[in-house]
Design goal:
There is one protein chain. By secondary structure, the protein is of the alpha/beta class. The protein has two domains: 4-42 and 140-209 and 302-360, FAD/NAD(P)-binding domain (3-Layer(bba) Sandwich), CATH 3.50.50.60; 81-133 and 214-296, D-Amino Acid Oxidase, Chain A, domain 2, CATH 3.30.9. It has nine helices and 19 strands. The strands form four sheets. Strands 5-6-4-14-15-16-13-17 form an eight-stranded mixed beta sheet. Helix 2 crosses helix 8. The radius of gyration is 20 Å and the shape is globular. 49% of the residues are buried.
């Protein structure tokens, strides 16, 4: 019998399975898809950054990036993140910068002239910029595959094509049912991403996580490999980054209704380009490659922060990352393993992101959501 059942084989579930197995637990991973990283992980734009406003988000990303840096399969590229800060967000971003620097992570303030040394842009309405040289991109598939391979090497069992149907606590264990079988374990860990709200309903637990569709548009090949950092105009949320000879770009739609809406929203391309071309006129004339564009889902919570920790005896959750699960998965895997193996996370204090904060009215507001 396994000691811990992990539901979900995205990057968070894979990291948790690896670290649980490393801690000596017998682990079973259940994944509804035919292989790993088929949900939000596989549709991520792959960015990793320490530039957040909440201290725990900064540290989760910082420690994860340090791990990805040593993982060949992650293909970490420190291209940097460049935030262009409008006058309206000047004070908030200065506060975030102070938090980051107080925690010892490498982020610095730039003048607009210094920022233009990285990428050309129109300065209208901007106050300054920030740059994180440790920020960059990884290969989410490669990192997830590494975590699962290591988990299996340490004895974990991974079952694909087995959707979670239900579970109940009985006799000191969780009895889990899938279409193909029944399993028992003292611990059940939900790493179910954008599907976490639905999984919670099957358990009779309120987990305030809902899916929000996000688009990633791609240009046609430019004929050369651009070297820009991942650049974000905080005035509109428009971002772009290089990928080989292409540029990937996008912008969150604040009016996107929650739910699993399918397909790329081509109607949102116009407002996205309008914001992008205003700030970055050099983008005009670049061809779009519709076949290389895609959509995925953020797993949103009411305060745009993850839910980490126990819900009740033996039932834990690591979900709701609101667009930064790939960035934080490596450290979250370690912390959730500590929660189960030792009864409490030791490496970092997870209390700000405990599930109970919503019932207690302790909402946090992460300002660094793109």
């Amino acid at each position: 019998m396994p000691e811990a059942i992990v539901v979900g084989a995205g990057i968070v579930g894979a990291a948790c399975a690896y670290r649980l197995a490393e801690a000596g637990l017998r682990v079973l991973v259940l994944e509804k898809e035919a292989t790993f990283a088929q949900g939000s992980t596989g549709k991520s734009a792959g960015g990793v950054r320490v530039q957040f406003s909440e201290p725990l988000n900064v540290l989760l990303s910082y420690h994860s990036i340090r791990e990805y840096r040593e993982m060949a399969e992650a293909r970490y590229r420190p291209i940097g993140y460049l935030f262009l800060v409008p006058e309206a967000l000047k004070e908030a971003q200065e506060g975030a910068l102070k938090t980051q620097q107080a925690l010892g992570v490498p982020v610095r303030r730039l003048s607009l002239a210094e920022a233009r040394g990285f990428v050309p842009f129109r300065e209208e309405g901007l106050a300054f910029a920030t740059f994180g040289p440790m920020d960059g991109v990884i290969d989410p598939h490669g990192a997830t595959g590494f975590f699962l391979r290591e988990a299996r090497r340490l004895g974990a069992e991974v079952r694909f094509g087995e959707a979670f149907l239900s579970a109940r606590r009985e006799g000191g264990v969780w009895r889990v049912e899938t279409p193909l079988g029944r399993y028992e374990a003292p611990y059940l860990l939900l790493c179910t991403g954008a599907w976490t709200g639905e999984v919670g309903r099957r358990l009779g637990v309120d987990l305030p996580v809902h899916p929000a569709r996000r688009m990633v548009y791609a240009t046609a090949p430019l004929g050369h490999a651009p070297t820009y950092p991942l650049t974000i105009d905080l005035a509109t949320g428009f971002y772009f980054r290089p990928e080989g000879e292409r540029l990937l770009f996008g912008r969150s739609n604040p009016d996107e209704p929650p739910g699993f809406r399918e397909g790329v929203d081509w109607a949102w391309l116009g407002p996205t380009l309008e914001a992008g071309l205003f700030r970055f006129p050099f983008l005009e004339g670049l061809a779009l490659d519709r076949r290389a564009s895609w959509f995925g889902y953020y797993e949103m919570t009411p305060d745009a922060n993850p839910i980490l920790g126990p819900l009740e005896e033996g039932l834990l959750v690591a979900a709701g990352f609101s667009g930064h699960g790939v960035q934080q998965a490596a450290m979250v895997g370690r912390l959730m393993a500590e929660e189960i193996a030792y009864g409490r996370a030791r490496s970092l204090d997870l209390s700000p992101f405990r599930p109970q904060r919503f019932q207690e009215g302790r909402f946090l507001r992460e300002r660094g959501i793109v």
